Amino acid sequence: MLAKPLAAPLFSISAVERDTGLSKDTLRVWERRYGFPLPGRDANGERVYTAEQVEKLRAIKKLIDRGQRPGKLIGLSLEELRERSLAADAIAVDAGAAGESGLAEAVELVKAHHVDALRQMLRQAMVQQGLASFMLETAAPLNGMVGDAWMRGDLEVFEEHLYTEVMQGVLRSAIAGIPAQGRTPRIVLTTLPNEQHALGLLMAEGMFAMEGATCISLGTQTPVWDIVLAAAAQRADVVALSVSVAFPANVATDALADLRAKLPAAAELWVGGSNPGPQRRPVGGALVLRKLEDIPGAVARWRQAHAPSTAAAGDAAPSLRRFRARI
Amino acid sequence: MLAKPLAAPLFSISAVERDTGLSKDTLRVWERRYGFPLPGRDANGERVYTAEQVEKLRAIKKLIDRGQRPGKLIGLSLEELRERSLAADAIAVDAGAAGESGLAEAVELVKAHHVDALRQMLRQAMVQQGLASFMLETAAPLNGMVGDAWMRGDLEVFEEHLYTEVMQGVLRSAIAGIPAQGRTPRIVLTTLPNEQHALGLLMAEGMFAMEGATCISLGTQTPVWDIVLAAAAQRADVVALSVSVAFPANVATDALADLRAKLPAAAELWVGGSNPGPQRRPVGGALVLRKLEDIPGAVARWRQAHAPSTAAAGDAAPSLRRFRARI
DNA sequence: CATAAGTAATTGTCCAGGACAAATGGTTGA
DNA sequence: TCAACCATTTGTCCTGGACAATTACTTATG
Description:
Two copies of one chain form a homodimer. In chain A, the strands form two sheets. A five-stranded parallel sheet of chain A has the order 5-4-6-7-8, with helices on both faces. Chain A has a three-stranded antiparallel sheet with strand order 1-3-2. The first copy, chain A, is of the alpha/beta class. Chain A folds into three domains: about 10-80, Multidrug-efflux Transporter Regulator, Chain: A, Domain 2 (Orthogonal Bundle); about 100-175, Methyltransferase, Methionine Synthase (B12-binding Domains), Chain A, domain 1 (Orthogonal Bundle), CATH 1.10.1240.10; about 180-320, Cobalamin-binding domain (Rossmann fold), CATH 3.40.50.280. The first copy, chain A, has helices at about 15-20, 25-35, 50-65, 70-75, 80-100, 105-110, 115-150, 155-175, 200-210, 225-235, 250-260, 275-280, 295-305, 320, and strands at about 10, 40, 45-50, 185-190, 215, 240, 270, 285-290. The interface between A and B is large, with 48 and 49 residues. Chain B binds a DNA duplex through helix 2.
């Protein structure tokens, strides 16, 4: 349609919506109310955002997701926003400092684009630590560090892609090596539509597989209705969703409530990932797994509750009730 | 937000957007133009859709995704819409009869949701045939059949997801097993933004790896600008893109021209996949690889043209000129 | 002094209805 | 058979108003 004249990438309003998680309506109303962002217009009178604007919007969104308010943030410069981010990250930074175990080195490899070295390092770490602690102590924190670095603008998009691809390869081949035990629960795994982050899902699959559960992964981005169909077709005991920070929290909450309502009552809904939505306001009837470490316990609990000797199929054992706050 | 009165489940416009994949704007404009759906209004004057309306919308959307047009569909009843779905399936049976090589059987496994059986069958086929012919004779045609079946509505979205996930696992572990030879050309692989089809990309990666080329995959959906950055950072000799049928042809053509203009002249641009755009109107300066089978030849040609003894770095050898129609 | 209740400001989503470009379908001429 | 043209269809974007849900602040009360 239009050949871009040069290296200044511009964004349409829908591109910005996709990149920031802020709805078109919100973007327009901010412009009206706060005077930011003030995009240019193309020949057709449609909004055209610059990369800087998008970056600032992303920084603002990140802080909003942590509970701060738009009105107070919009006036700040990108630097001031980053400061606030870092202040809020204080805890995360601590964790980063604690990671003396070569994690920082791995991030450096990403920045230096040493793909092979990174892959080798990760494989080696996995062999040394075993899959379980590799995921818990290496993959999960590394994901967090890479995600933070990307948020901070420390990493280019393609560098994050490189990392994701390498880590995905390492995790997938590891998971493929876990012997299928075919035990219950049967777990259908996926992410919500527009949620592209596959690594959280893969790690969850790995954890479940190590517990001997039967995993059926649908990959990323399954429409709610198809999750329901898949759960029925696979006679799933559990539907497990991974929801990343990047995903709009309120959309997640709504979609989860919707999904819960459509799933058969006998199927449980487990939600993992770093998204603040489900963590702050748990959806009724969904079990929130804050960390990968919670997975073995959840599986054990499920098995205890569904032990063939004690409970008949269909009614949840009392011990589980605590974890399912009905609306 | 709103507690549902159990008897008649009603849907807000955002719930319908989630469930059907039709945007709020589209829902409103259909109402204005076609008089369907005509939702009720709540106390606040906001649209309230019934479950029947949502179901019909979903049926319509499914047919639209297969290429039918809204205007022709909206007048039909739910039963008539279902008929059309089934009518399209009739052809599917024919096509199924053609595949004698066990491929039809694989598709049946997908429809029956026998994930484990499918995985086992694919792995076995790969061991028997070897990676090369597995990809050419099994994976590639199977992809086509699954894609066709999905287009026809023969497969649900989640069934296509299941297939993709299983095949991806099989291919990835196979590719991981190819010893890295580290030879030239260095190839950066990815897909364009909004192009989610990962299987074509993986198969291309496998083919390249078997030729001993150095593959750096960015995964799917890399923005054009980041492809350029990645190519520079990796000192790529070739950028290889996979563009599926599902991808809008003209968008592909534009994006490719854009990419070609931004890439350094020394880097070649190779385009594969089943998309008709590049095949019909080749982008200047891009080499179109119609089939996976073309890959070994392309690599061989590149090596011949860049043989260290004959040509200095930077200028393409004459034998290559034929494949690069400059604008 | 703390807590509850009420008021004010903030903020996201929805609405109407106009406009327009991209995509599609059909027609004509080479 | 193919290319070029015109008409129609269709999704997205626009403006600017409205309102309910949330959050922050103030005041009355134990």
